């Protein structure tokens, strides 16, 4: 399990929002590159080199596709590089295409990593904060899919066992499969959602002050980091709303000071750095044993 | 002091009197079994004692809980002090993960997080389920689900536990584990329990009192030792333990043995006798030939069945017994053509399954999987071979089938709301409408009371006379001993010890019927209570 994922779920959500919003609000080549590399590095940490490499290769082609497609459809910009079907392919569009492709792929990697670390427990912890009933509803919903799969498989077997599908017409076969599917859906939904008696029998709705078994504590550290992140976000949104990188008609050189790049880089690489630090610490502990 | 007192309880649903003048009381710490034929109102009575579960209908009479009127108790008391468990674990479950399920009731009660953690830690350790705490409920087996449900109910620390056939969806091994756990909870924690059950072989030795219901009335309220005296002329006598049945059928009264051990003590006073084994009937030609069959689920898994060879003859009732997960159900699915063996062949009448003209049907382990409609009648009318017929013919075929299986009274009921045994019978009716040559039955007696079991036994025998071949997979060895013409045990990838049931069960020491255990050494080949009675009488005649 990743050490970074042990942060409070709310902090995790704020973090990824800051990363994505900073990236898109600046649309700056260097910042997008930092977000992309940070995302890929963390993805490697989560999945190991072998598995992650496959995805990286796949997303490299996605990157190429966007990077090539964009300038061949968008022909704005001053500096033509060459002509394609009588249309100018401009330096500006090529650059923007690369940045856009980078931003899309970076978003993909962050999303994939978050699907991995944002487990049902975390979703529930966040939702339950909003409303306890919402938390329960989502938890019930989570039961639905595996139960449906089991029931569907079981019913298919059972019906095949009595020759339910032994008909010649394909249309009829399909109609029967559909009828079975619909019936399974209704039955599973009934099992999962229609249980006011059962829930009441176990005291549901009895008291307004419903308590929680698992409370993910929002520690001081979580609080400080969250405030830090929010301030960071406010500052840079403010900055980039004035100075967003322009690509048309000409690329506007947005040069931030090197210090800014370092700070933003630290932010984008934070999960990776944190994991690396933890694993070094762990190795150090182990070697002492 | 009585924890629960029921006075003149009547319940009417539409024009149907479900409960009539029921009165009884339960002392704190008592373990009470409620039994009776299917449809006698047992489950309804139990629901009346859990206010949140009461169905709609007209109710009169009074229930006192801890001396207070039931209807005046606050909702918090009825929800927590009375624990209730249902038949179907999936219906009882609410949440996704095991720990959520355990916490659900406590969270509802508003228990503080620290107390909750302690309570859940306690109950999880008591039940030995701490290792699955983070598993999804859907990944658990039926027995494990019921265990979690029980733990979740007990975590709320109820004063009394009401259990409505909690083992009817479980295989007999999981069921008997579950029941012995209940006994432990009663003995070690002094938990008061009222349980509705068919499985009396395990319950009667441990419970304090027995309530017997029939047609909505509570007929007997007595101890396990004396319930038999009231049921002497009643078919439900066969629901009692084997030792008790032998005792009463030999004409004794009063001091009945209950367990196998008591039964051995009791039977020891008789002279040994050997039951005559039935002469081998002339065999029909082989119908199913299985030759060097190998099966596994996927390339990487281990063989479930390996080098299996056996034949089943036309008109046989061939039973396969064996433990959990040895591949009994998979074997049936292979025979039904639902799974393909990766080596070896199954032949029907000496031709490959594709060319065979006969009809083979399979009753799945969960009969609910066959149901698609909202009434039993519709369910049967829509059976594939029937639905194309003209209307009148359809009706008559379906109603004669319902009559044959004694389910006419259920015709307008929803198949999903029936009891376990009624569902099995409905599913069987649906199968028989296919006019099968071969009937494959996977656990046909699951959740059935003794009368339904006898009906099914009779039915299978009737089908045998019509040369229908039946292959049964079951954990229920009493049923196997009763119904089969041959029995085999599936163990370690192959079928072993295939033999006549009398020989099979007599030569087994552990995996055998209670009757055979009692009769061991004294009456060889006696494998049912009736056999023992016959053997005893045989002896008397000789003297």
Automatic annotation (TrEMBL), chain A:
Transmembrane stretches in the record are: 7-24, 30-49, 56-74, 223-242, 254-273
Coiled-coil ranges per the record?
A: none
**Which cellular compartments is it found in?**
Membrane
Q: How does it sit in the membrane?
A: Multi-pass membrane protein
Q: Which keywords appear in this protein's UniProt record, sorted alphabetically?
A: Membrane, Transmembrane, Transmembrane helix
Which InterPro entries would you find in this protein's record? ABC/ECF_trnsptr_transmembrane (IPR003339)
This protein is called what? Energy-coupling factor transporter transmembrane protein EcfT
Which taxonomic lineage is given here?
A: Bacteria, Bacillati, Bacillota, Bacilli, Bacillales
From TrEMBL, chain B:
Residues in domain ABC transporter?
A: 4-240, 288-517
Write down the SMART domains for this protein, in alphabetical order: AAA (SM00382)
Q: How does it sit in the membrane?
A: Peripheral membrane protein
The UniProt entry, under InterPro entries, shows: AAA+_ATPase (IPR003593), ABC_transporter-like_ATP-bd (IPR003439), ABC_transporter-like_CS (IPR017871), ABC_transpr_CbiO/EcfA_su (IPR015856), ECF_ABC_transporter_ATP-bd (IPR050095), P-loop_NTPase (IPR027417)
Protein keywords: ATP-binding, Cell membrane, Membrane, Nucleotide-binding, Translocase, Transport
Q: Where in the cell is it found?
A: Cell membrane
Q: Does the keyword Membrane apply?
A: yes
**Pfam families for the chain:** ABC_tran
Q: What is its main location?
A: membrane
What family does the Swiss-Prot or TrEMBL record give for this protein? Answer: Belongs to the ABC transporter superfamily.
PANTHER family, per database record:
ENERGY-COUPLING FACTOR TRANSPORTER ATP-BINDING PROTEIN ECFA2, HEAVY METAL TRANSPORTER
- The name on file for this protein is ABC transporter domain-containing protein
Give the source species. Answer: Sporosarcina ureae
């Amino acid at each position: 399990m990743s050490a970074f994922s042990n942060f409070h779920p709310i902090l995790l959500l704020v973090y990824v929002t800051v990363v994505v919003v900073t990236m898109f609000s600046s649309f700056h080549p260097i910042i997008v590159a930092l977000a992309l590399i940070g995302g890929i590095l963390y993805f490697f940490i989560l999945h190991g080199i072998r598995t992650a490499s496959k995805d990286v290769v796949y997303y490299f082609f996605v990157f190429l596709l966007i990077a090539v497609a964009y300038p061949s459809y968008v022909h704005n910009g001053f500096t033509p590089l060459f002509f394609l079907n009588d249309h100018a392919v401009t330096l500006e569009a090529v650059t923007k295409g690369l940045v856009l492709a980078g931003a899309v792929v970076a978003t993909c990697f962050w999303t994939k990593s978050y699907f991995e670390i944002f487990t049902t427990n975390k979703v529930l912890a966040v939702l339950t904060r909003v409303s306890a009933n919402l938390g329960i509803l989502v938890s019930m919903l989570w039961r639905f899919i595996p139960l449906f799969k089991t029931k569907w498989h079981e019913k298919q077997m059972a019906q095949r066992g009595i020759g339910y599908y032994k008909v010649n017409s394909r249309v009829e076969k399909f109609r029967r499969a559909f009828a079975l599917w619909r019936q399974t859906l209704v039955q599973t939904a009934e099992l999962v959602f229609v249980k006011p008696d059962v829930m009441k029998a176990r005291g549901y709705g009895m008291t307004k002050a419903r308590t929680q078994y698992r409370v993910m504590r929002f520690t001081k550290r979580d609080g400080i980091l969250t405030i830090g992140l929010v301030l960071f976000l406010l500052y840079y949104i403010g900055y980039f709303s004035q100075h967003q990188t322009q690509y048309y008609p000409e690329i506007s050189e947005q040069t931030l000071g090197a210090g800014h790049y370092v700070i933003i880089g630290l932010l984008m690489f934070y999960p990776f750095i944190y994991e690396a630090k933890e694993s070094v610490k762990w190795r150090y502990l182990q070697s002492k044993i | 002091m009585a924890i629960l007192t029921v006075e003149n309880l009547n319940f009417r649903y539409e024009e149907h009197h479900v409960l009539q003048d029921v009165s009884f009381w339960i002392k704190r710490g008592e373990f009470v079994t409620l039994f009776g034929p299917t449809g006698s109102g047992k489950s309804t009575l139990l629901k009346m004692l859990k206010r949140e579960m009461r169905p709609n209908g007209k109710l009169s009479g009074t229930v006192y809980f801890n001396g207070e009127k039931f209807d005046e108790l606050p909702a918090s008391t009825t929800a927590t002090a009375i624990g209730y468990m249902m038949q179907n674990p999936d219906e009882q479950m609410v949440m996704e993960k095991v720990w959520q399920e355990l916490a659900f009731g406590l969270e509802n009660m508003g228990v503080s997080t620290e107390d909750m953690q302690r309570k859940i830690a306690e109950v999880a350790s008591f039940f030995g389920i701490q290792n699955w705490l983070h598993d999804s409920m859907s990944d658990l087996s039926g027995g494990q689900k019921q265990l979690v449900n029980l733990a979740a109910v007990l975590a709320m620390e109820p004063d009394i536990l009401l259990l409505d056939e909690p083992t009817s969806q479980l295989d007999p091994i999981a069921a008997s584990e579950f029941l012995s756990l209940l006994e432990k909870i009663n003995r070690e924690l002094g938990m008061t329990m009222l349980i509705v059950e068919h499985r009396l072989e395990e319950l009667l030795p441990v419970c304090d009192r027995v309530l017997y219901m029939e047609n909505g009335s509570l007929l007997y309220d007595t101890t396990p030792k004396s319930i038999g005296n009231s049921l002497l002329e009643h078919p439900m006598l066969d629901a009692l333990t084997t030792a008790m049945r032998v005792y009463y059928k030999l004409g004794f009264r009063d001091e009945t043995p209950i367990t196998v051990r008591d039964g051995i003590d009791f039977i020891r006073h008789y002279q040994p006798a050997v039951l005559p084994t039935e002469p081998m009937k002339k065999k029909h030609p082989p119908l199913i030939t299985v030759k060097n069959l190998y099966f596994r689920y996927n390339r990487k898994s281990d063989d479930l069945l390996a080098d299996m060879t056996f034949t089943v003859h036309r008109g046989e009732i061939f039973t396969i017994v064996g433990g959990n997960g040895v591949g009994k159900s998979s074997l049936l699915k292979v025979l039904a053509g639902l799974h393909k063996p990766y080596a070896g062949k199954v032949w029907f009448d000496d031709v490959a399954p594709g060319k065979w003209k006969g009809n083979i049907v399979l009753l799945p382990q969960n009969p609910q999987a066959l149901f698609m409609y909202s009434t039993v009648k519709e369910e049967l009318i829509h059976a594939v071979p029937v639905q194309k017929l003209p209307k009148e013919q359809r009706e008559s075929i379906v109603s004669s089938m319902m009559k044959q299986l004694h389910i006419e009274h259920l015709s307008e009921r929803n198949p999903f709301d029936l009891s376990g045994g009624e569902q099995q019978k409905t599913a069987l009716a649906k199968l028989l409408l296919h006019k099968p040559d071969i009937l494959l039955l996977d656990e046909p007696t699951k959740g059935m009371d003794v009368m339904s079991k006898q009906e099914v036994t009779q039915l299978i025998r009737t089908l045998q006379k019509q040369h229908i071949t039946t292959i049964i997979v079951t954990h229920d060895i009493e049923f196997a001993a009763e119904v089969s013409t041959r029995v085999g045990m599936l163990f370690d990838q192959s079928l072993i010890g295939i033999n006549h049931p009398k020989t099979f069960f007599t030569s087994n020491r552990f995996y055998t019927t209670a009757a055979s255990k009692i009769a061991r050494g004294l009456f060889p080949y006696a494998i049912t209570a009736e056999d023992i009675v016959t053997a005893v009488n045989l002896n008397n005649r000789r003297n």
